[in-house]
From TrEMBL, chains A, B:
S-adenosylmethionine-dependent methyltransferase domain residues: 188-331
SUPFAM superfamilies for this protein: PUA domain-like, S-adenosyl-L-methionine-dependent methyltransferases
Domain of life of the native organism: Bacteria
InterPro entries: PUA-like_sf (IPR015947), PUA_sf (IPR036974), RlmI-like_PUA (IPR041532), SAM-dep_methyl-trfase (IPR019614), SAM-dependent_MTases_sf (IPR029063)
Keywords: Cytoplasm, Methyltransferase, S-adenosyl-L-methionine, Transferase
Entry similarity comment: Belongs to the methyltransferase superfamily. RlmI family.
A Pfam family per the record: PUA_3
Domain RlmI-like PUA: 7-64
One GO term describing the cellular component: cytoplasm
Localisation per UniProt entry: Cytoplasm
Name the record gives this protein: SAM-dependent methyltransferase
Length: 391, 391
């Protein structure tokens, strides 16, 4: 069977250990055409079915370890249905949330985010691409969507040999739409630009965490790396005043619109490098009772870790210095390569340098509509910790 | 100043790193009398104040890194007040919960659990012992308690040179009392025997986790290492039937009383070794829709880890094999020496061996009335994970 992906003993051992990915270097033969293919070990024993692409560094992404399963488009559709069933059970108190979280839902490389009656799709594998149209059709019909947009940008698709572009795959999707999510003091509304916003238009992974911090909002509040006000919108209802810091004037302009949409007038917008602005606030002797620090991923690759550690530590140290006793800070890393233990080690170092004693109020991760799959650490990338200064 | 604890450079570096404990081997001079003492480096520079005991392996437990602070009984009382303030803010939906969590509340070695109008105290340091009476008096008066019991047992106190025994420190405490905690389907009542029960009478650290699992209870349910029904009492309201497994007939007898107290008649009690019983259930082809696995700490010391790994993996593997697709399992390790990453690695290995695909619904730790202190990993010991079998 030349049409099967044949794994080296190391590749087969990788699957046996429970991780669904096999690198090209651990394969002995790969089919020419990307798609769903059978997987075998070197002795021809069937190991299941996978999304296979010889051009991709991760050449094999296991769909099922059961050789008896019929892995076809109906199989993928059943996985999609299971993902949608899970969200129906979660019943998120929001109309913007994740519908499909790649490996977390057994659909490698596929991300689907919902924004009310619209969805935004990102597909990162050539093997799934021939089935994308049918999956989108099924999704749109099942949820009664008005439009589905593909946000097909970035290096991943190019590496898979796929075209990039932003296209409507179903119906029509507006350039801008309004959604809402639950906050500690009632619903929070915000605008999303699905064609141009970050990721699929917004950072949905922090949805639950934003509401958690909102419950602690009081006094002077600070939102560092605010983007379009993701955390700030949850700080404004409880705080006397909120300062948003972001390097992007366009993001702050949308934040201002979002604040208006929610009727908040207690906000200032600072277009600045966060490191510089935090240093200035410290020099000016400012203090903030509630702080959100939600920086971009500093460690996109494992080799970025030492620099990422320094950047995270400096930011956290500066924020801790702005926090009075009793103040609460939410701090995040969205870098998969920064482990829970790295992250909390870094925080402990920053607290020791700042000579403050901190209580951990909560450790969390991405919202449950971004489910972790046991044994696939890549599906759990977000670290979110709520700290209270006690001394 | 011979009355100060003088640290070696390594001991001083340990404090500078943020961890409050210094081992005897990292000290140069220790006062003869256990108590609150000043701490200095080798050049006589003040490093703050600590609970110090030359007889204890952990000879120095820093209270404050601020040499200007006056560390005395009033200082300890202020720490106690801060711990009680935090619980007042948490306002737990239960009348049994932890009031003082040792280092988590800046009171090294001190544990206080509340059971309605009573409290149970465990003090593990000779340095704090002279102040215990005053602290208990303050606690009892502030909360209007009817009695406070000392559960002073075990090796820790002997190693500190302290007497052991079970004594009323304030008022009167009954041999048995009834408490309640929030469950997914209403309050759950249970009996506590503060003189003879596990720990201070009950496992309060799993309080929130029990309610979380309770929300998933359905069909046939299994509570492995049930003790007096801690999880089972939360499974019974939603499940068709619950089997409790415990090696202690006395624990099961109290579980039976607790079930009666809550009006549950859908429970069977199996006095057995959990490993054996799980094997028998598997052989009999039994399946359980909801499972709680809450074993004792298999790794009390770091050197127990390899054996602990094997024991945890066998138990989890056996439980996973009893779980149908759609089933939910809560699995726990209360061993501090088993890291989050060890624990989830073990679970992933068990799932790979069982050939099941698992969604992580939730990762948690002990209830927030057992607060973690940033930089003191020992204050966060509990791993609690909710898994759903998806395939």
């Amino acid at each position: 069977m030349t049409n099967a992906a044949v794994l080296s003993p190391r590749g087969a051992a990788r699957l046996a250990s429970g991780h669904p990915w096999v690198y090209r270097s651990d394969t002995l033969n790969l089919p020419d055409t990307p798609g769903i293919h059978a997987v075998q070990d070197v002795r021809g024993r069937p190991l299941g079915w996978a999304l296979v692409n010889a051009r991709s560094e991760i050449s094999v992404r296991l769909l099922s370890a059961d050789p008896a399963v019929r892995a076809d488009e109906a199989f993928l559709r059943a996985r999609l249905d299971a993902a949608l069933d899970y969200r129906a059970r979660l019943n998120p108190d929001a109309d913007a949330y994740r519908l499909v979280h790649g490996e977390g839902d057994g659909l490698p490389g596929l991300v689907v985010d919902r924004y009310g009656p619209y969805a935004v799709v990102q597909n990162g594998t050539a093997a799934l691409e021939p089935h994308l149209g049918a999956l989108v059709q099924h999704l749109a019909e099942r949820l009664g969507l008005q439009g589905v947009l593909a946000r097909h940008e970035g290096k991943v698709r190019a590496l898979e040999g796929l075209e990039t572009g932003i296209d409507e795959l179903y119906g029509r999707v507006p350039d801008r739409l309004e959604v809402q999510e639950a906050g500690a003091r009632g619903p929070v509304r915000y605008l999303v630009e699905p064609r141009t916003g970050q990721k699929t238009g917004a950072f949905l992974d922090q949805r639950v965490n934003r509401a958690l911090l909102g419950a602690y909002a009081r006094g002077a509040a600070l939102d560092v790396f605010s983007y379009h006000g993701s955390f700030g919108l949850h700080l404004a209802p409880g705080a006397a005043h909120v300062e948003l810091i972001d390097a992007s004037g366009a993001a702050l302009a949308r934040a201002e619109e979002n604040m208006r949409l929610n009727g908040h007038t207690n906000v200032t917008y600072t277009e600045a490098n966060a490191f510089d602005r935090l240093r200035d606030l410290e020099s000016a002797g400012q203090r903030f009772d509630t702080i959100s620090l939600d920086p971009p991923a500093f460690a996109k690759r494992a080799k970025d870790l030492p620099n990422a550690y320094r950047a995270y530590k400096e930011l956290n140290l500066r924020c801790l210095k702005l926090l009075p006793v009793g103040g609460v800070m939410a701090t995040t890393s969205c870098s998969f390569h920064v482990s829970d233990s790295d992250f909390h080690g870094m925080l402990a170092d920053a607290a020791a340098d700042a000579r403050v004693r901190m209580r951990v109020l909560h450790r969390g991760t991405q919202a449950p509509d971004h489910p972790e799959r046991l044994g696939v650490p890549e599906t759990r990338y977000l670290k979110f910790t709520l700290l209270e200064r006690v001394e």
